[in-house]
Amino acid sequence: MKKNNDTFFADFVHKPFSLITKPIGAACNLKCTYCFYLEKQKLFPESKSLKMTEELLEDYIKQYIQSQPTPTAQFVWQGGEPTLLGLDYFKNALRLQQKYAHGKTIENAFQTNGILLDDEWCAFFHDNNFLIGLSIDGPKEMHDHYRYTNNNGPTFDKVLAAIRLLQKHKVEFNTLTVVNDYNADFPLEVYRFLKSIGSVYMQFLPAVERVSEKDQDKGIRFVSNQYSAAAYVTDYSVPPKKYGAFLNAIFDEWVKNDVGSYFIQLFDTTLANWIGADPGICMFSATCGHAGVIEHNGDVFSCDHFVFAEYKLGNIKEMNLGDLMNSPQQQLFGQDKYNSLPQACLKCPFLDKCWGECPKKRFLYTEDGEYGLNYLCEGYKSFFAHVTPAMEYMAGELKNGRSAVSVMRKI
Fold this sequence. Notes:
15 helices, two-stranded antiparallel ribbon, about 15% strand
């Protein structure tokens, strides 16, 4: 049964939206094997520099703050690698935020590979309450397997040094771990390592990418779920069964020992969906469309995973940012997350826990021959079935005003 489009569209424009801000585009000091964003530079052949100009930065900050219907505006800085812009660039960004805040609370999140962090950067993050997302894929051998410099050098030691600097300056951070075909074989080694280095907040991000057998326009290789020509799943993509087993192994250790002490985004999101609360991330929501991307030249796209020409909404130099993010094109994009689900998903007992995850990964056919099944479906079914007893217990505790931590005494 499809949701009522009129109701969705009416509610859409009243909700706040977020943007991943890419002020240096896809420029990076690493060339991670699984990075899907490096090639996005090819979409902007007219750009002499991938740096967002100070004039455009000011216009963006002004438009973004003014377009938020809430008393808080959160900026998410990403790349590429944003530290390549230098610290003074972000000092100026904070000055501009205060210039246009007009009583609103401004928050900043910053995603980095950590290579260029030093005491000055970390002091700046602490003094201005930045939340840092730091990429690390596990112990040295696993991390360096796919994450290396442009000169093919290892990166693990520099990333670990960055974590120590963040801790030294008491900067709040979470770790972003890409689960790929290699480290997925070592779930407990990855989890225990992250705990050992002081990571309390963890995100496990499955690597799933398809590339076309022939270059597309401008030499683009990575493709969306709508690409119909010949394409194949990359070797580094995590196999569905392996991803499910990875999550299950970590969940079993977490639910027995670490509930309330360590926070794993997928587990928190699953519990939120179990009690009917807002899951907090678009992948596990019924619809999406409130998390776009702005590139270095002012181009706005529907989603970080859909930076393709056909998903460009416009440019803030030509159209107001709020109008772009609330446009009919974006509303249809958001509603299509639900409306494009195959019947097999609509009948699935875990529909309200998964919602088909991210549409970019929906490129398989169901047993009935319907297109649009998520590549990771088998893994997620394994995970949701595995965690059901614990989730039902924790959901019951929360609904009765008690802490979910007691699950550790029951499992």
